[in-house]
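hey can u check if this looks right to u? its 124 residues, i copy pasted from the old doc so theres a chance i mangled smth
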Amino acid sequence: MGLEEHQLMTKELVAGLNEFIAGGRTFDCVSCLSVLHHFVRQIRGNHGTPADEVLAKIAQITKTVMFFDMGQDHESVKGFTPDYIKTWLLQKGGFKEVIALGVDEDNVGKYARAYRRTLFACLK
């Protein structure tokens, strides 16, 4: 068992979000894992869509809850500490509540610096 081809969609993130928004599509549960720090880094280099705008679009298609993590201050995403991320999600995402669920603690191996991220549940 698994997904059939017609159930899958592959698109550039912002274009896909714009399609969902234009079509009035929302989802009860959205996962945004290890994505938005790439937009933070792009904007600091003056390229691409601002992270605030991408977050607002993701929040717009989220009906109930979004599970979220991203690169943080200890991974060279300067200033994006768990406290800052929580405030950012509340302010720029318009979520009513943001709950830190825990921290990834398997800080070993090739990607050791990419761990210790906080996972958040963002509630509408």
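The CA atoms of residues 106 and 112 lie 8 Å apart.
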